[in-house]
Amino acid sequence: MTRLHDTSGLRLAGLVILIGVSMLSESRVALAANESCERTDVSEVTSPDARWVARIYGKLCDLGITSSAAVLVDLVRAQAPDTPVTVLSIDMPSNKGLWPHAKWEGAGRIVLELPSNANIALQMANFQNIDIQVRFCTGDPTERDRWLAYRAAYHKWIADMSAWTQARSRDPGAAGPQPRAPTPPGARPVDASCSPQ
Hints:
- There is one protein chain.
- By secondary structure, the protein is α+β, with helices and mostly antiparallel strands.
- The protein has two helices and nine strands; from the N terminus they run αβββββββββα.
- It has one domain.
- Helix content is 28%, strand content 31%.
- Strands 1-2-3-4-7 form a five-stranded antiparallel β-sheet. Strands 5-6-9-8 form a four-stranded mixed β-sheet, with no helix packed on it.
- Strand 8 and strand 9 form a beta hairpin.
- The longest helix has 29 residues.
- The termini are far apart.
- 19% of the residues are buried.
């Protein structure tokens, strides 16, 4: 007697993972292309010589079946406010206190403070002779390294889950144990201590 294995649940899990990865890629494209997006909570910090403005804002994009949210920092000339250039983009944190904080350290240098678990999508080092520094609000420099290691392990887990799901659909007995998701590093209170804008 032939036994049939119900693998529909496993196929669905694999499909959900692939759709999630695909939607993340689509969200990056939508944010870049400015499609169906709106700005929220715009704040500005002017350079000491009043020539430049750093504009920090949230960007919410409707992608149809899902949505995407990011926080961006633009640099714009005070005399040409309609020609901004995005110099930093991160995934939107759940807490607005963890948005980037901009501080001018002179007319040609700006510091952008971020929590150690910020997912950076775009980061420019300089623009129009302005040095753009990113600093992480943590007293322990290894916090950022721990977060990056977790993100790498998370992406590997997604790939491992996809491969495991496919192997399980072919031969459930030979697929081995299900890959275990990595545990994210705990949030540190010091990350919320970035000085206010």
